[in-house]
Design goal:
mainly beta; Elongation Factor Tu (Ef-tu), domain 3; YaeB-like fold; four-stranded mixed beta sheet; 3 helices; 12 strands; binds S-adenosylmethionine
Length: 234
């Protein structure tokens, strides 16, 4: 049996590549984005009532994690990337049906310029992610404060302090909403965006993350991350 679904819309997100995206939603509330509904789902009446909710569930396709074959076990970054668990005990993008589920903040519902748009915050999604469905988050049923959470009982720890070079600071100040952008960049970096298998820190290495319309370039020095520049995308 094969079921066919088509996206109801697509995500606009500051995350332009997988590297740097938090591993779950809600970790970086400064990560603002949008769900833009596509035809024929772009109907203002289809979202009437949604403005009464603070959060929504998004069901989406991990469109950059499509593989022909699936593996029954995965190595979650949370376990250092060297221990395996069953794919259904994980939230890994690589799964038999590459479908993700995220609860995100709903900041606004807009029908403008012929588009129906949900304004969202706390995303863990790549720009262009196809969305299959939206449902309101209902606290009395969806929130289970005492639930056991397997190998991920706590949010990821803050690992680094983040500072900006003079060049990066100047570039930040020339952009709209610099304080918000500064907080966003700090949140992305302080929890260590590197994959679990990244190994020991190499002080000479310069890392890059594509965010918005720039390439964030940074390096690690002990417990400190220095943002070197917000470079034009290479
Ligand atoms: N909250 C969702 C869930 O539990 O189904 C996603 C969790 S998954 C571990 C989050 C990671 O998926 C992100 O850190 C990013 O690397 C990756 N990701 C996000 N959007 C993606 C997409 N459209 N295609 C492939 N990978 C994506």
């Amino acid at each position: 049996m094969v079921y066919k679904f088509e996206p109801i819309g697509f995500i606009r997100s500051p995350y332009k590549e997988k590297f740097g995206i938090p591993r779950q939603p809600g970790l970086i509330t400064e990560a603002r984005g949008e769900l833009v509904f596509s035809e024929p789902y772009s109907r203002p009446e289809a979202v009437i009532g949604l403005e009464g909710y603070s959060h929504v569930w998004l069901q989406f396709v991990f469109h950059q994690a499509m593989r022909e074959a699936w593996q029954p076990m995965v190595r979650p970054p949370r376990l250092g990337g060297n221990k395996r668990v069953g794919v259904f005990a994980s939230r890994a993008p690589f799964r038999p049906n590459p479908i993700g589920l995220s609860v995100v903040q709903l900041e606004g519902v807009q029908a403008r310029d012929g588009e129906v748009v949900l304004e969202l915050a706390g995303l863990d999604l790549l720009d262009g992610t196809p969305v299959l469905d939206v449902k309101p988050y209902v606290a009395y049923v969806d929130s289970i404060p005492n639930a056991r959470s397997g190998f991920a009982p706590e949010p990821p720890a803050v690992r680094f302090q983040v500072r900006f070079s003079d060049l990066a600071e100047g570039q930040l100040l020339s952009r709209p909403e610099p304080d918000q952008l500064r907080r966003f960049i700090i949140r992305v970096l302080e929890i260590d965006p590197r994959p679990a298998y990244a190994g020991d820190t190499q002080p000479e290495r310069i890392y890059g993350i594509r965010l918005y319309d720039f390439d964030l370039r940074w390096r690690i020095d002990g417990d400190l991350i220095e943002v070197l520049e917000l470079a034009p995308p290479g």
